[in-house]
Design a protein that fits this description.
The protein is α/β, with parallel strands linked by helices. It is built from nine helices and eleven strands. It has helices at residues 43-54, 71-79, 92-101, 117-121, 149-158, 176-188, 198-201, 220-226, 239-243; strands at 10-14, 20-24, 27-32, 61-65, 84-88, 110-113, 129-134, 159-171, 191-197, 207-214, 234-238. The strands form two sheets. An eight-stranded mixed sheet has the order 6-5-4-7-8-10-9-11, sandwiched between helices. The protein has a three-stranded antiparallel sheet with strand order 1-2-3, covered by helices on one side. The two termini are 21 Å apart.
Length: 269
């Protein structure tokens, strides 16, 4: 099923798990299972969900930069009913297609704003969210304006005291870009840990790195205790260890994350 009119095509491909993969121009964006919102097929989404589960029980307020199929927003709605959520997603056609083909549950409190992350951040109130999720890609790369010191300062501003930022980043095996991104994050958030599948953490291939960052301590042992529930073997390390001696980005020299070997396999913004 394709949606239009638009500069892009959107398809919704059912699979044998009972869910649907959302595709934009033939490229996978999200996996959604309306019957089981806790089924998180994409490895990095399952890692982001561990961060959500670290928060205190009950409804939360969440801000998402990047929406696509709204997989994590649906997870929060399902596991924490009554949560209030704001999603910044500039692709209106994609949002319309997802709403039509994969309707949100009744009683949800998910508001989708047709804004890119950098623009929408400036409109968000201080101390408004328990968690802020960055999962936005443009042609397979995390945009530079979402990794700048200015953007990361906004993440800290929007979060409540003790809130948790969850960032889906990506890098080459040498992790040079990730190291500078972590150095920048650590300026605003003194506590951070990094999750990745074992082969990515060992530097064997290009891949996703999910960062948990906060102004309050994050128990690395508690994060590691939750990793066995994930389908793929996953490791967690302190951000300070992975940063090494890298210098933070500045607003003048910040770069998008490196292009993946196969852009067709990566989320777009």
């Amino acid at each position: 099923m394709s949606a239009g009119p638009s500069d892009h095509t959107f398809d919704f491909a059912p699979d044998d798990r009972g869910g649907v993969t959302v595709l934009r121009d033939g490229h996978p964006q999200s996996h959604v299972d309306l019957a089981d919102p806790e089924l998180l097929v994409f490895e990095y989404v399952a890692q982001l969900a561990i961060g959500i589960d670290l928060l205190a029980p009950g409804p939360i307020s969440a801000t998402h930069i990047g929406g696509a199929g709204l997989t994590l927003a649906r997870y929060i709605q399902h596991t924490r009913p009554g949560s209030t959520q704001i999603v910044l997603e500039p692709d209106v056609a994609l949002t319309d297609a997802v709403r039509r083909e994969l309707p949100l549950p009744r009683g949800h409190r998910i508001r989708i704003r047709p804004q890119d992350g950098a623009t929408g951040l400036s409109t968000l109130h201080d101390d408004a969210a328990d968690t802020l999720v960055l999962d936005a890609y443009d042609a397979g790369r995390v945009p530079a304006d979402l990794l700048s010191p200015t953007a990361i300062a906004h993440y800290a501003r929007v979060l409540k005291p003790g809130g948790l930022a969850l960032l889906n980043l990506a890098d080459e095996p040498d992790r040079r870009h990730l190291a500078r991104a972590l150095a920048t994050i650590l300026v605003a958030f003194p506590h951070a840990v990094v999750l990745a599948t074992a082969e990515v953490m060992k530097g064997r291939r290009f891949g996703n790195y999910v960062v948990f960052a906060s102004g309050s301590p994050i128990e690395l042992d508690e994060v590691r205790r939750r990793l066995p529930r994930l389908a793929a073997p996953t490791a967690a390390r302190s951000a300070a260890a992975l940063r090494g001696t890298a210098k933070p980005f500045t607003d003048a020299d910040v770069q998008p994350s490196p292009a993946p070997p196969d852009p067709g396999t990566w989320r777009v913004r």
